[in-house]
Amino acid sequence: MNNKAERLKKAKPITQVEVDAALAHRLPPGQALTERFPILHEGEVPNYSLPDWRLRIFGEVENEMEFSLEQLQTMKQSQVLCDIHCVTRWSKFDTTWDGILFKDLLPLLGVKPEARYVMIHADNDYETNLPIEDMLNDNVLLAFLFDGEPLTPKHGYPLRLVVPHLYFWKSAKWITGIEFMKEDRPGFWERNGFHNVADPFREERFSGEDLGLPEDLWKDVDFD
Ligand SMILES: Nc1nc2c(c(=O)[nH]1)N[C@H]1C(S)=C(S)[C@@H](COP(=O)(O)O)O[C@H]1N2
Ligand SMILES: [Mo]
C-alpha cells in the first residue's frame, strides 16, 4: 500500500467542501462550497477614525444627510441568515449578519419618488449599482456584525452592504455613501465586464464575453 497516496485521498480539501444532497439546490450553478471566508477586494484595507466616520445620503433626496456610526447603531437592528455567492465561484452557506435592514432605513431618507436606483459608494473608490427594488428585499442589510462579532477590517469594518441574492461584488465593504438615482449607471465591476444584474442562479457573471476567470482563482486569496 502506498501510504502517502492513501493519506492524500483521505485528506479533506482545505477550502472546498462536499455539498449535502439535501442542500444542493442552494448552490448556484458553477459554484463550489467553502466553509472558510475568502477575502477579496481592490486596494488597501482602509483605516478609520470612527468619530469622523459618516455615511452620506445624496442624489435624488429632499435633503442630503449624513449619519454617524453612533446614529446608525441606535436604529433598529436585525439579523439575517443567508448564503453568499462570489463570482470567482465560491459560495458559503448560513452566514449571519447583524445591522440595519435597508427597508427599515429607506423611509428615513426622504428619497424623491423619481429615484429608482442606488449607487453604493465605498472606500478605495469602489462603487456598485443596484435597483432600489432589489435593495428592498427582506434580507438586504447594512451590516455591522458577522457571526455575532464586529466585521474584521478585511471584511468591511465598520459597515458593509450585504445583498445575499446577488453575486457578492454587489455587497460593498467599507461603505461611505448611498446615492439615489433616476437612471441606472454602472459601478466599478459593472464597467469592467461584470453583469449589471448579477443573479447567481442565472449565472449572470459577465456582461459580454466570458472574462476567463480561472475556476480556482479564489483558492489563492487570503482567508479568515
Ligand atoms: N469597498 C469594496 N467592497 C467590495 C470589494 C472591493 O473591492 N471594495 N470587492 C467585492 C467583491 S468582488 C467581493 S467577492 C466581496 C468579498 O467580500 P469578503 O472579502 O468579505 O469575502 O466584497 C465586495 N465588496
Ligand atoms: Mo468577488
TrEMBL record:
Pfam families with a match to the protein in the record: Oxidored_molyb (PF00174)
Location of the Oxidoreductase molybdopterin-binding domain: 43-189
PANTHER family the UniProt entry points to: OXIDOREDUCTASE MOLYBDOPTERIN-BINDING DOMAIN-CONTAINING PROTEIN, PROTEIN-METHIONINE-SULFOXIDE REDUCTASE
Record-given protein name: Sulfite oxidase-like oxidoreductase
Species: Paenibacillus lignilyticus
High-level lineage: Bacteria, Bacillati, Bacillota, Bacilli, Bacillales
